[in-house]
Every structure is written in C-alpha cells, then in structure tokens.
Amino acid sequence: MDRYEVRIGGFGGQGIVTMAVVMGETASLHDDKYVVQTQSYGPEARGGASKSEVVMGDEEIDYPKVQNPDVFIAMSRAAFLSYIGGLKENGILIIDQDLVNIEGEIPKGVRVYKIPATRIADEKVGNKLATNVVMLGAFTAITGALSVEGLKRQIEDRWPRFVKTNLQALEYGLEAGEEAEPAIIE
Amino acid sequence: MKSLPERVMFTMGDIAAAEGALSAGCRYFGGYPITPATEIAEWMARRMPELRGAYVQYEDEIASITSVIGASWTGTKAMTATSGPGVSLMLEAIGLAVMTETPLVLVNIMRGGPSTGQPTRGQQGDIMQAKWGSHGDYQIIGLTPASVQEMFDQTVQAFNLAEKYRTPVFVLADETVGHMREKLVIPDEKDIKLVNRKQPTVDPSEYLPFKADDDLVPPMAVFGSKYQFYATGLTHDERGYPSDKENIQIDLITRLNDKILKNADDIIDLEKYQLDDAKIAVIAYGTPSRSARRAIAIAREEGIKAGLLRLKTVWPFPEEAVAELATEVDHIIVAEQNMGQIYHMVRSAGAPTPITLMRKPAGMPQLPEEIVQKIKEIDSQ
Question: Which of A115, B5, B28, B326 lies 20 to 30 Å (CA to CA) from residue B362?
C-alpha cells in the first residue's frame, strides 16, 4: 500500500476522533501497516468543529498530516465545507446524507457514497452513539483499506462491555457500504 | 495487580512519554493539568497507584515542580509535565534544581504562545526558554523527540541523563508529537538500560554533599538517611554551606556548567539522513524534521543533493556537529515551528556557511513542498 490518506470531519461528540483511532489501531496492530493518526479540535468539549486524520502505508510515514486525502468522510455540513479542499481527483467522498448535502465544486472522478450512518445507528442498532462504528463499517466495505477481521478483533479488544452493540453496528455499516452505489463526479 | 504495560500499543506521544518515565523507574508525578500535556497527568494518575508510586495534583505549577524537587531528594525518580504557560511558572524552581543538582524530568508539550496562546495547536516556541528561562548562568539538557516511539525512548533517556548528571532535563515535544498516535513498542524490562544516581559510600562523618568526583558530579545522599546535609539555592561550598566568597562562586558555577558541556558527546544524540554527499543540509527537530525528511526524498528524486541533520538533542547544543556539517555543505536551511530559535545557535556554529531560516510560528509545520521549494531556490543560485 502506498501512502494512503483519510480525513474525517464532523462536530465534537460524534466520535470523529475515536473513528480515526480505531482505524489506526486496526491498521497498525492487526493489519501490520505503518500508521500515524492526528486530530485537531477547538477548545469546546461538544459541538465544535472536529477533524481527525489517518495516514497509512507499507513504508514509514514521514510527514504526519493529511495533504490530499484519498478518502474524506464528512459527518456535518460545516466539516464538509471546511475540509473538502484537497480531496484527490478520483478519490472517495463518504457523507452522512441526513447531515450533509453536496455543495460547490468537487474534484473530477470523485466517487460519492451516501451512508445514513446516524439513522442506521438510531433505528437499526438502537443507539446513536454507534454512528461512528456504522461509518467505520461502511468505510471498510467501500475502500477495503482495513481488514474486516482486524476491525472485529479491535472492536472486541477496545469495547469489551459493548461488543454486541458495536459488532452489530459494524455489520450494518459493512452492509450499507457494500450496497451503496456511488455517484461519480464528472 | 498488573505492573507491566502492554508490549505493543497504538497510542499518543503523551502517553508514550508517561510509559517511558514509568519504565525508567519514575515513581512520583507532581503536576497540574494543561492542554496539550494533560494526557500525561491522566495516564500517570491511573498508572502510578498500580506501581505503588505517587501521583499528586497540586494547586498550581509552582507547587508541582517544587514537590518534584523534594521527591527527588528522597531518592525517588520524579517528574512533571506541562506546557509553556506552566513552564513559565516553574522557571524559578528549575534554577533551584540546577543549583541543588536535583535530578528531575520536565516534559513540555509545546503549544502556541506567548501567554495562553493557542492551547490546542503546537509550536516550538519554548526552546530558548528551556535554556535561558531561569536566571543565572547555567546549562540544561533538552531532548526533542519526533515520534511516539521516541517519546518513550527519549523520556527513558531523559531520566538516565538526569540521574547521571544530577540535573533537570527537559523533554521538548511540539503538540503534534504529543498528540499524534503511532505504534509504540515497549521493550522487555531487561532490554531497557537504566542509570541510577551515585550514592555516597564514605563514612557519614566524612561526607561532603557537594564534592564532585572526577566526572564533576557529586554522589547524592537520600534525605533522612544516615548522611546529614543541607541543600540550598545559595552559592555553597563542598559542605553545602552558603558562601559569598568569589572562588566558591567561580568553582561552583564552572563545575555546574562543565559537567554538562564537557560531557556533551555523551549527551548529544543526532540523526543523519542522506548527508554523505549533500550540498544542501536541512537542520530540524520534532515535527518539522518529518516534513524535511519527505522534502529531502522528493529533492533527491529530482537529482538535488540534499540531506537532513535531525537534532534529537538541542541542549547542550551540538555545536561541533553543526560546525563540521557547515564545512561539508554549501548551504544550511533551518526549519523551525517558531520565529527562529535554534537558528541563532546554528548561525553561530556554522558561520561563514550561508544559513537560511524557514520560520513558522503556527500549529502546522512547514509543508514538505515548501521545504522542497526552498531547497530548489538555493540549488539554482
């Protein structure tokens, strides 16, 4: 795997940083990749802008921040507008369509996947807190950047008390990712 | 009770520093939380009781650092962690630790300053503060890790140097290094080399608490042991008694400086990358050094002979290594996440070789492309 960059944006409280951390843990500890995970957030605990990033690859990662994401996951309109810049041509854009509309110029060839992660977490899993795990499942199905096996093991290691809910959320996310038909930007 | 951490973790630089301290034998943490160093305190609050160590949160940074000095005198390896505003409050006591030759480690996760600045954004603005912040004429040791693994390794090293040279040691990490997550491998306990302070062996009636051995470092007795002594911030003789004599002041201050300066080779750690045939060298530390590494890979692909001297130690400043580098290359670029601090040291060591500063007093380091651009500009001159 060449240097592979993922950016996730949303608001504080959605589990934006946790999503990137679990992504990093899986790639680093189970899939044996080099990984750097970073984040930036404002001084607020909830509701402020939140951005997290993962850079992974088969070689040591030098510059630790994302410059031109291969994948951008947008979980709020504000984050979509702030962080869409730099997305690679032919890259992947994953949005929660209940929270984000596509606006403005999107680079050529970008594949846009709409995943109602918050709705799935609320209605199917019965817990909105699982939104980020649903999205993690969708990301994995769409990109193949993480092993499903590694992700399951990491979820079991990380949340021993909430394994059932989170594995269920993961399954719904994987399913939504597999079924999603991308719109391709021309 | 679990006394050993997981061997492999995917974790933050802050937590790696805490684990490094614990592996080095640190069993006392006195601190006051501050972004972006709070995770160190949080981790220590959780881990210290497991290891029968002590974690104390104080009312402020001044109490924190003075408690660390006291803890160290009881024979315990001790530390604190803070950020720039906290260091500002601790500086007076840093001088006391220097003067009383107290081993301790201070981790500064550097954020944007001056004053409250940008708490959640990084910078490298406290490099000169670490060296010159307290009054008087002294040396300090300052280490600059650039990865999560180095946060662990260099915090272990910080304790070893503090113990060996009886001095405060700064770990100076920018916020990006403190808050980034990477894989951390904690070696087997037996593979971690530890240094412990020298203890006196003479009869208590003959003990001179500030009489140095040939290495310029005096053995350090434990408070409350059979050795009786007095430690003061006043200029003192070998007995530890205050003195206003000129020769005592000269001898003491010279020794305190020389025990660091004359052992600079033992203390300094550098990494050379692609320097063998380089015509243009970049000098950097912390996160900007990771931008520089990428920039050099890109420049090399385009046939430009560039290399990197990465400083893992900034204090004592690696003057000889920089002077030597300056004779081997045509131009040196210094990339720092500040307005130019180590730049001044490089300029004084590297003259008359031209030295260009890339300054950036903000949360993100220079982009690799910006450094490539500067290398190309210089290469085409």
Answer: B326
Contact in structure between A49 and A78 (CB atoms under 8 Å): yes
Residue ranges with strand state E in A16-168: 34-41, 49-57, 71-74, 92-95, 111-114
Phi and psi torsions of A11, nearest 5°: -115, 160
| Nearest CA-CA partner of B106 in B27, B24, B53, B172 | B172
Which amino acid appears at position B263 of this protein?
A: N
- β-sheet with B306-311: strand ranges across: B270-273, B306-311, B280-284, B331-336, B355-359
- Report chain A residues whose CB lies below 8 A from the CB of B176: 38, 64-65
Q: For residue B355, is it within any domain? A: yes
- The answer to whether the CB atoms of B176 and A25 lie below 8 A apart is no
Task: Dump pLDDT digits (tens) for A121-151.
Answer: 999 999 999 999 999 999 999 999 999 999 9
Which class for B57: exposed (0-12), middle (13-18), buried (19 or more C-beta within 10 A)?
A: middle
Domain tally, chain A: 1
* Domain assignment of residue B366, yes or no: yes
Range(s) of the domain holding residue B373: 271-379
Which chain A positions have a beta carbon within 8 Å of B363's beta carbon? 40
Residue A176 CA to residue A114 CA, distance in Å, equals: 9
Tell me the residue range of the domain where A69 lies.
Answer: 4-177
B275-307 per-position pLDDT tens digit = 999 999 999 999 999 999 999 999 999 999 999
The structure tokens 């957030």 sit at A41
Contact between chains at A36 and B181 (C-beta distance less than 8 A): yes
Evaluate whether residue A183 is within a structural domain: no
B167 with B277, same domain? no
Considering only CB atoms, which chain B residues are within 8 Å of A61? 182
Classify residue A52: in a domain, yes or no. yes
Which residues of A make CB contacts under 8 Å with B? 21, 24-25, 28-29, 34-43, 61-65, 67
Checking ipTM against 0.90, whether it exceeds it is yes
Confidence of residue B1 (pLDDT cuts 50, 70, 90): very low
pTM listed for this prediction: 0.96
CATH of the domain at B156: 3.40.50.970
Name the H helices within B12-79: 13-23, 38-50, 61-73
- Of B191, B208, B240, the position where a domain reaches its end is B191
Domain count, chain B: 2
Query: Before B352, cis peptide (omega within 30)?
Result: yes
In a domain, B218, yes or no: no
CATH code for position B375: 3.40.50.920
> B287 — contact with chain A (CB < 8 Å)?
yes
Whether A73 is covered by a domain: the verdict is: yes
Q: What is the DSSP letter of B122?
A: E
Q: Does residue B245 lie within any of the structural domains?
A: no
